[in-house]
Design goal:
single chain, mainly beta, lipopolysaccharide transport protein A fold, 19-stranded antiparallel β-sheet, 6% helix, LptD_2
Length: 904
């Protein structure tokens, strides 16, 4: 129902508006505002046209001149031709050849050939005649007012009566096209049409291979009367027709029914999927309702609303609910819901204020139980977490202050737990120099280099609550945690002895809470047999901590020169840094931040003591135990080579090739510790090869102390355990133990990687500057990324290699995987996409391997999705129309993972 009404409504409305108004001209249009852009040299005559005084129409006409019509015609005909022109003064006929142009009031016409009959007030235009391509070259293009141009094989226009006739017109509006047949302009803004094809194909007749043929009809300003019309594919008429139609011609979106798809699911039975109704509320908002019904009693309901206010904001809201009977007959159904919301605000709408939302929340089993609502998307079916955030930000111009308020949601689908932040408030002050003056003259004094900052963050948080308990009364009353944290950093930076950079400072952190905890043991409990009892103690409690630091660094450059070969030099840049930090032991009882739970002593069992922080379960934690007073050291290195310029390089500038973009080694020695003062040695680095096309990252950790292996017997079984001793490995002539190491390499390759093209900066290319058609297509891509396939890129390849290793002497583990993804265009119309992960250690492919095949059918798209093996093995074949307004017009055939018993 929606398809038929939508086709006829747009076909008749589009024909009427473009043909009837193509020649009505109440106003005037400048000569420069024409379809084909004017050239200053070629069109100098037309640009310099001036109205001759009292020049009668019958006095003759020459191309490139103005003519003042006689009688009731008061406008001027302006004409020019690139090739040649001829005027028959006797018969009052003018002929224009080769890129001819005529401008009459606000009517504009370009064509290869134009004939002007001054006696009968007629203008005739056609393209260059070609026996094979018909009027392919130089076809007439006519335009009136702000209407879109109309292309045709030929046209005849009476500029006195404003009547006209168009043969094989071709025009577009909102992704829909009119071509073929004839259109005749009538008085009173009416148009008669005959055998016009309305379709989604931008190729003109006869290349158009799908559409609705409107045999006869009359279009008026507020209503459309249509005669017989039928559906046609590849020139073959189908038995889908109506004898007549009478429709209003609204200026807003049209509502209608969305046709469903039919099929069978092994677990849910026969289905009627995605039956819906579209409501175009206004130009800024629409709503789509969809439902899926299954023969075994299951159903799915969803509502999607898109909204957009140009230069203001835009977004998408979807509410989904499903009830599925996957169990035995009589078992209760599985009920799931989900809400997704995305919202973005134009940065220029409210300067200094931002608002955005990205919400994805619902039951943990929604994606697994409702695969049809998400088009059997593999990433959605296998995801483990859902996250949401709603953010409001405010900055005050001319001040260092900014405010951010956010609501957060995190959901673990595996553990079925939910974490909420209701809300989180952050207030920050950028670093300022309180002792410096804006009108200072001369260099800064040492005290004027002191910088101070401030940040405050506060939250109300419900952490890891089971889904079944989320909406109970105890969740917000007993499990809600709140707190506030203030941070004040103070720093000063200066240069010492010209080559050294010195910085010093400190940080003070203050935390406020409305509750703490207390741990205790039951009376008479046996040592090690019971866990302590944790009680929540209400009441305000504060915790303050501070730390001091200082550091000094410099840069050392070393270069090795080469006299032979293309390699001229290798330069290494080394950045050593020494730092000192101090933090007192906040576990001391005098602070009151740490307490000890002690069990009752009993014979023959001794007592048990457990030190704990009273802020252990607080949202921002509390001060940690242990005094720290030590020196940290780090060493950062970069190495690059200098090569001679290539023979084709005329600049003569040597080439710089990075060998190692960063290699850092760091550790810390704590003088306040009673043993094992040296921390683990950390190492990390990164570089790129093949002209920055392949990125490499690596990191590792070394234990500088000796580790001994000891044996023990438990239950008659020999077991090994390790023990670190306070003795450095170097003292025994051994290299520190490599505890863990990771290596990753990634590359994204395509033809532009090897032959980069200079990107053009398009002014106004923002969300606010998009046309309505671009906004519709962008919304479609955001809701279904697979709807867009770029055939302009012949191939893409993404490589991601990952290796990890861990070792504690007794046990060692490693993983070695390679992920491949990309696409390749077999021809200009065929593209194959692939995505897989190969485990090099196990020598097998991941079960999430997928392939996709796309065929560009011009105004149609054919896609095949295939998961060849694994639990989610399936295939899906879809044929759909490209036009965004007709996305519901598609044919699908699938065998999803719920039908694996019959999958071959």
């Amino acid at each position: 129902m929606k398809l038929v009404s939508l086709f006829f409504l747009f076909a008749i409305a589009l024909t009427a508006s473009l043909a009837a108004h193509a020649f009505s001209a109440p106003g005037k249009t400048p000569v420069k505002d024409t379809i084909i852009k004017l050239n200053a040299a070629r069109d100098s005559k037309l640009l310099k046209i001036k109205k001759p005084a009292n020049a009668p129409l019958g006095a003759g006409y020459k191309a490139g001149q103005d003519t003042t019509p006689k009688s009731g015609i008061k406008s001027i005909i302006k004409a020019t031709a690139e090739d040649s022109s001829y005027t028959d003064r006797v018969n009052k006929m003018s002929y224009l050849y080769g890129r001819a142009r005529v401008v009459y009031e606000d009517f504009q016409l370009d064509a290869d050939y134009i004939r002007i009959d001054e006696k009968n007030h007629l203008i005739f235009a056609r393209g260059r005649i070609d026996p094979k391509k018909r009027y392919k070259e130089g076809r007439p293009i006519s335009k009136s007012k702000d209407e879109k141009p109309v292309e045709s094989d030929s046209l005849l226009f009476n500029y006195d009566t404003k009547k006209g006739k168009i043969w094989n017109p071709a025009t577009t509006q909102d992704g829909n096209y009119i071509s073929g047949g004839q259109a005749k302009v009538l008085p009173h803004d009416e148009v008669a049409y005959r055998n016009v094809i309305f379709s989604t194909c931008d190729l003109p007749f006869p290349e158009t291979h799908f559409g609705i043929v409107i045999t006869k009809g009359i279009g008026q300003k507020k209503r459309i009367i249509s005669g017989p019309a039928y559906l046609e594919i590849e020139g073959v008429p189908l038995p889908f027709a109506i004898p007549f139609g009478f429709f209003p011609k609204p200026n807003s979106r049209t509502s209608g029914v969305i046709l469903p798809t039919f099929g069978e699911d092994n677990r849910l039975g026969f289905y009627l999927r995605n039956l819906g109704y579209y409501i175009g509320l206004n130009d800024n908002m629409d709503v789509t309702f969809n439902t899926s019904l299954y023969s075994k009693g299951s159903y799915e309901i969803s509502a999607n609303s898109r909204y957009l206010k140009r230069y203001k904001y835009g977004g998408n809201l979807t509410l989904s609910y499903g009830s599925h009977n996957y169990g035995l007959v009589g078992d209760p159904p599985r009920k799931d819901f989900n809400i997704t919301w995305s919202h973005s605000q134009d940065p220029n709408a409210h300067p200094g204020t931002t608002f955005s939302a990205s919400v994805n929340a619902g039951t943990s089993s929604y994606y697994q139980n409702s695969p049809g609502l998400n088009n059997y998307n593999l990433e959605a079916l296998t995801q483990n977490n859902l996250r949401s955030s709603i953010n409001y930000g405010r900055t005050w111009a001319g001040t260092p202050f900014n405010l951010n308020v956010s609501l957060g949601h995190s959901q673990d689908l595996t553990k079925k737990t939910v974490t909420l932040e209701l809300p989180t408030v952050s207030f920050n002050m950028a670093t300022i120099s309180p002792f410096d003056r804006a009108d200072r003259v001369g260099e800064q004094k040492w005290y004027q280099k002191i910088n101070v900052g401030y940040s405050m963050v506060a939250t109300n948080k419900v952490n890891a609550v089971p889904e079944s308990q989320l909406f109970t009364s105890e969740t917000l009353t007993k499990r809600l945690q709140n707190g506030m944290q203030h941070t004040i950093p103070v720093s000063m930076n200066m240069n010492l002895l010209k080559y050294f950079q010195f910085s010093t400072g400190g940080t003070y952190i203050e935390r406020w809470y409305l509750q703490t905890i207390k741990k205790s043991y039951d009376r008479g409990s046996i040592s090690g047999s019971l866990t302590p009892i944790t009680d929540t103690i209400p009441g305000f409690k504060r915790a303050g901590e501070y730390s001091l630091n200082a550091s000094m660094s410099t840069k050392v450059y070393s270069t090795i020169q080469f006299k032979k070969g293309n390699l001229t030099a290798i330069r290494a840049t080394t950045t050593p840094q020494l730092s000192f930090s101090y933090r007192p032991d906040f576990g001391d009882p005098s602070y009151g931040y740490w307490q000890t739970a002690v069990s009752t002593a009993s014979v023959p069992y001794p007592y048990t003591s457990l030190p704990y922080s009273i802020f252990e379960q607080a949202v921002y934690g509390g001060p940690s135990r242990g005094k720290q007073a030590g020196i940290g050291f780090s060493l950062d290195n970069t190495i690059e080579a200098k090569l001679k310029p290539k023979s084709t390089d005329t600049s003569g500038v040597p080439r710089k090739v990075p060998i190692l973009q960063g290699l850092s080694i760091s550790s810390f020695y704590n003088f306040a510790a009673d043993s094992m003062r040296l921390a683990n040695i950390s190492m990390s680095g990164h570089t790129s090869i093949l002209n920055q096309k392949v990125n490499i990252n690596f990191s590792g950790t070394f234990d500088p102390y000796l580790t001994l292996i000891r044996d023990s017997i438990s239950g008659g079984v020999k077991q090994n355990y390790i023990r670190r001793i306070n003795k450095l490995s170097f003292s025994e002539g051994k290299f520190p133990l490599l505890q863990n190491f990771s290596l990753s390499m990634s590359a994204a390759l395509n033809p532009s990687t090897f032959r980069p093209k200079q990107q053009q900066n398009v002014n106004g290319a923002t969300l606010a500057a998009m046309t309505p058609d671009q906004q519709q297509r962008l919304a479609l891509i955001n809701s279904d990324p697979s709807a867009y396939v770029d055939f302009n890129v012949p191939w893409n390849l993404s490589l991601n290699y990952s290796f990890s290793y861990s070792n504690n002497i007794i046990n060692s583990n490693s993983s070695n995987t390679m992920m491949l993804s990309g696409d390749v265009s077999i021809t200009k119309k065929w593209k194959v996409q692939y995505n897989t992960t190969y485990d090099l250690k196990a020598q097998k492919l991941s079960s999430a391997t997928s392939f996709a095949i796309y065929r560009d059918l011009h105004c149609w798209d054919l896609s095949i999705q295939w998961l060849p093996f694994g639990f989610y093995k399936s295939y899906n074949v879809t044929l759909k129309v490209k036009a965004s307004i007709l996305q519901d017009l598609k044919l699908s055939k699938r065998n999803d993972y719920t039908n694996n018993q019959s999958f071959q």
